[in-house]
Automatic annotation (TrEMBL):
Name the record gives this protein: EspG family protein
Amino acid sequence: MSVEELPPYRALLVVDTKGFGSNPAATQAVVSAAIPDVLSQAFTRAGLREVWETALFPHGTGDGYGLGFDPRFLPAVVTRFFDELQAVLAERDARLRSAARSVRLRMRASLNVGPILEPAPGTTSAAAIGSAVITTHRLLDADPVRSVLERSDPDQTFLAVALSQRVFEDVLASEYAKLPATKVVPADVAIKEYRGTIYLYVPNPSGDLLRHGAGGYEEELAVARSKIEPTAPGSTTNVISGTVSGSAFQIGQVHGNVNHG
């Protein structure tokens, strides 16, 4: 009886850029070309040049980029890479906007790990397949990840990161990464066939994120407000205690002596 082999476990990083489609064609070409360069610089600054140079199935998506790597690098990627990517994006954004004020380079990133069936050597396709790959791409489209860039200052916050449940448990909760688990915010997401919890990391929070955090505070407010029972229209309850002489006007709750004369 033959036994199928489990594909090797790989870490998978995918990024895409906010508002890419709203740019004119010439600008899209500039932004698309900048994406791999920005990632390369961030890996180098994080001391992870080896991850970039030995990347598995690297592939551009026009408005983004994806690559796989050995899971042993996950603690270092979580600890150092995203902070460096935020810094590199801020620098590149300033350069792009000096040439054209409408151009922005802000990213969403997702990081996952799992069994991935890699492309066969010599094939033209660079994309790997497997549920872990699909999930990694789904995380980029989750509302909480998109909301981070919508609710933050576009001149300060250039990166929103979604870590999968598996990455959180194996890397952060197990304390292999030096990034404290308290710096990420859990969020339940449902997008297409995916249901699960992601962990948001924002290297440089700003704007509304500083007031309400990176989680779904709108939902929390809605739940809190629903628990407040409004007074039924037309109903008035007055409580008057003590000695009353003359006329008593209905003005709400009155305790003590009320005298009119």
